[in-house]
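thoughts on my protein:
***
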Amino acid sequence: MKSWILGIAGLSGVAAQPMQAQSAAIERCGLRIATSESKGYAGLPSGDIFCPLMADPKALRSFLSYQRTVGEDDALATIGSVGIADQFGISRWNGSTPGNGVQLSLTGGVFAQFDLGTTSYDLLNADYVVGLPLTLRRDAFSMRLRIYHQSSHLGDEFLLRSTDSGRVNLSFEAAEAIVSFEGPLLRLYGGGEFLLNKSPDELETYVAHGGAELRPLTSAISLGAAGGIRPVAAIDLKSSQEQDWKPSISIRAGIEFERTRGADPPSRRWSLLFESYRGPSPYGQFFAEKIQYFGLGAHFQL
């Protein structure tokens, strides 16, 4: 666990190029900051100053994903994974450079998984997440400090067909800190979480989190007035005290679509990503199980 966290931090320090990275951060991940809201104080601002995490299974974005999943019993299942999320900016105190500053927001999302191998596409699990993130940026470096709540629930159809559902009343609040560096091509980030009020009580407390993303500054293929396409790839790693620090590995790679530049604020983006995951299940009610899956998903940035 410590080795890959130190590796992320070391690479960030070696790669720092503040002037290039500041421009790259704004353009690369589409922070959607309107020109009229980029100086001074902005109430109820659009966009954010912290780039979303591309490969984090619980990153707040809307998506539709088709997955082939292998559980601990080697049973193969076809899963439809869906996320619906949004962010509401409360206040932003901008720095002297567009994109720099401090922002407070309110976020919320629901993540659900459906068994596509059943006639009625049974709901398996639903995770509800509500958070209050404070994001900060100075040139190439950004940070997200967040308090959030998650509760997880088994689906009705799953409960009806299961003789031993093993339902857990999983619910917790967590304090999170993530530090990020964005270069012209490579982004590196790392941090962790501290679980506060948790149920069941025996849940362990600490989570380590890090990763890397590749996203070129400019589109590889121009579509003229329709926008452009760029290749993207990311890896996200999490290790928890609950799972004896054995890491989960989430990989996503594919293409990202953006509309014509020059919109104010910048237009939203969407991506088509191959995804692979191995480790403790990211689906709340099944957190104690080890799974692996691969699939394809359409992801829509906030």
The longest helix spans residues 2-15. Residues 1-22 have pLDDT under 50 and may be disordered. The radius of gyration is 19 Å.
